[in-house]
């Protein structure tokens, strides 16, 4: 039989237990609730000092918690056999990153719903997140490992190998982040898909850089893996959140009600609001909110509200399709929201 590949080149993107070795090609270091109130008849004033939440802070917290869960699930996988082939290595890394994705994605997908009391929607999104995160992690890990191994094959010296490992890991985790961000974005709408793809790639690459730097100075495997995976989750969450903020065109800012203080970016041409779990924006724990209470529709640089229940615009009942502008206040059930819109000169077409 022909000889197998040089074992020194079979270095996984997923750090594994290191066998002792010598020579220039030895494996490198592993690397809310709210009080009762009647529907207001006038525009409420913002609550001073209220806690605010936007896509960046949400992405940061969800990314850290998702990274911790992803690390915990990744430990379910056994060690890579010492006689593993390249194909074995690709599959090993793919399953390893699939477990990480299955931990990160449901938290990122469901965090906003869970923390606003929309428990049924949170469970739905978390369930879909497990499937999407696992599939995205598998694809990203498999392709990332192929890229990683291919790049290391061109290194001739230990110094060159060390530099190439960093580059390969950054690119490999960038692929993982791109697939993960794209997958989670599908749950929210067309614009979130693009934001997730680009933000996920940037965040994954940044997290991979941190992962490698932590690994280079570590004396064991567990610590670097934990902090590295958490760094990747944090970086992906923040980067996607930044993309959401930079490219947002229309959004709502909660003034009163269960979504008070939250920024709700609209990622679809038609966004439904109500108490039902199937709505895009769920107003939970509000007895005056209809299952589907209103729909916001975007056409170019214009947004309008279609009332399916009682809706006030600046304290005036909306009758039929009503155009709403930046700064106006919508009252839906016991909740009020300020409408936000980017200046027309700096807005990209809403996709």
Model description:
The chain has 351 residues and is α+β, with helices and mostly antiparallel strands. 47% of the residues lie in helices and 14% in strands. The protein contains 6 helices and 11 strands. The strands form 2 sheets. Strands 2-1-11-10-7-8 form a 6-stranded antiparallel β-sheet, with no helix packed on it. The chain has a 5-stranded mixed β-sheet with strand order 4-3-5-6-9, with no helix packed on it. The longest helix is centred in the middle third of the chain and has 34 residues.
Shape: elongated
Order of helices and strands: HHHHHHEEEEEEEEEEE
Helix content: 40-55%
- Amino-to-carboxy terminus distance: 56 Å
Oligomeric grouping of the chains? single chain
Number of helices: 6
Strand order of the largest sheet: 2-1-11-10-7-8
> In what range is the share of β-strand residues?
5-15%
Give the tags.
351 residues, alpha+beta, 6 helices, 11 strands, elongated, disordered N terminus
Outline:
Helices cover 47% and strands 14% of the residues.
Write the layout of secondary structure elements.
Blueprint lengths: L54 H20 L11 H30 L3 H34 L5 H28 L4 H27 L5 H26 L2 E7 L6 E3 L4 E5 L6 E2 L11 E6 L2 E6 L3 E3 L2 E2 L4 E3 L4 E4 L2 E7 L10
Parallel strand pairs: 3-4
Antiparallel strand pairs: 1-2, 1-11, 3-5, 5-6, 6-9, 7-8, 7-10, 10-11
Helix pairs in contact: 1-2, 1-6, 2-3, 2-4, 3-4, 4-5, 5-6
């Amino acid at each position: 039989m022909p000889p197998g590949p040089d074992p020194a080149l079979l270095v996984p993107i997923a750090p594994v237990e290191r066998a002792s070795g010598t020579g220039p090609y030895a494996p490198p270091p592993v690397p809310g609730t709210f009080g009762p109130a009647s529907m207001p008849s006038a525009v409420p004033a913002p609550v001073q000092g209220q806690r605010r939440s936007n896509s960046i802070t949400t992405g940061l917290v969800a990314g850290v918690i998702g990274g911790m869960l992803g690390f915990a699930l990744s430990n379910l996988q056994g060690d890579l056999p010492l006689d593993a082939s390249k194909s074995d290595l690709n599959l090993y890394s793919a399953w390893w990153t699939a477990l990480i994705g299955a931990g990160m994605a449901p938290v990122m997908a469901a965090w906003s719903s869970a923390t606003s009391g929309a428990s049924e929607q949170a469970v739905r999104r978390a369930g879909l997140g497990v499937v999407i995160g696992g599939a995205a992690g598998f694809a990203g890990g498999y392709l990332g490992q192929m890229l990683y191994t291919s790049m290391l094959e061109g290194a001739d010296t230990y110094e060159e190998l060390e530099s190439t490992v960093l580059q390969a890991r950054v690119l490999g985790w960038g692929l993982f982040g791109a697939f993960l961000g794209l997958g989670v974005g599908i749950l929210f709408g067309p614009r979130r898909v693009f934001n997730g793809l680009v933000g996920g790639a940037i965040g994954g690459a940044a997290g991979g850089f941190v992962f490698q730097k932590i690994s280079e100075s570590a004396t064991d495997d567990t610590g670097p893996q934990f902090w590295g995976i958490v760094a990747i989750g944090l970086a992906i969450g923040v980067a996607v959140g930044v993309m959401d903020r930079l490219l947002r065109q229309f959004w709502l800012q909660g003034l009163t009600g269960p979504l008070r203080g939250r920024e709700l970016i609209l990622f679809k041409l038609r966004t439904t609001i109500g108490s039902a779990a199937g709505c895009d924006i769920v107003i939970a724990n509000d007895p005056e909110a209809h299952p589907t209470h209103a729909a916001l529709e975007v056409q170019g640089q214009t947004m309008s509200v279609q009332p399916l229940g009682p809706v006030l615009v600046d304290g005036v009942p909306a009758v039929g399709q009503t155009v709403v502008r930046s700064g106006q206040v919508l009252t839906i059930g016991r909740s009020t929201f300020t409408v936000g819109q980017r200046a027309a000169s700096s807005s990209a077409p809403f996709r």
